[in-house]
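Pasting as-is:
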Amino acid sequence: MQQFLKFSPEVAAARSAGKPVVALESTIISHGMPYPQNVQMAQEVEQIIRDAGAVPATIAIIDGKICIGLAPEQLELLGTSPDAMKVSRRDLPFVLATRRLGATTVAATMICAQLAGIEVFVTGGIGGVHRGAETSFDISADLQELARTDVAVVCAGVKSILDIGLTLEYLETYGVPVVSVGQQAFPAFFTRDSGFAADFQFDSAIEQASFIQTKWQLGLHGGVVVANPVPEAFAMQKEEIDRITDQALMEADQRGVTGKAVTPFLLSRIKELTQGRSLATNIALVKHNALVGAQLAVAMRDLPGLKPL
């Protein structure tokens, strides 16, 4: 496995020095936001993590290697390459073997983070059970990865384009704890309250770290969802985003958009329908998640006596 990993000098130095490292996905750069906001967001998120005492490791597949930590020119490459392949668990061997440019989803980033020994991963929102999944069977691979891979995922919940209730039921079935930060409600990406509750609430990084480490020390493998709501100043109104989401979903169905193309289409259409406000919310929540994730990584390093099996 290690022959596929390529650490950036910054991440390699952090590993040698025992500094906490935070994984970041790259699909959000290549498919989640328009250029140049995507690259600017990635750079700012990395700096937030550094300022909080951890080291960022944005992950992507480049030239047959899993790159753990990216140089500025590599971030630029991802931000300007819409044909970069969206890589999940199924796609990892193909992209590596064919030396394609690959942007990692939540699932693939979790796999790569665990291979690199990184315990904390920051993203915008996780995938989940899509609406109508009872007939389409469209369920994100992110959920299965959370059930099996020992990485804590800091996110703003799941997007309102999904069936949030079924997503939480799926996570419960597979024993994935859902922890909220600062509130009991489970957030829905653009909004702070999905109408559903998280399993547990831990507001401080040390509480979150203690819970996560205890889970792994018990031999209970799999991830933890750390659901961190978007800051109130950037949150959108639930009624508005629900109405716009319904319209975007209807348009996706009318145009025959399916599979991996659904989420990028919906995010782009929601951005248009909100006249760019959803993009500002998206950027704000990722930055907020980066701060919480960095604090968690520092707490995980400093917590004595508990390490994953």
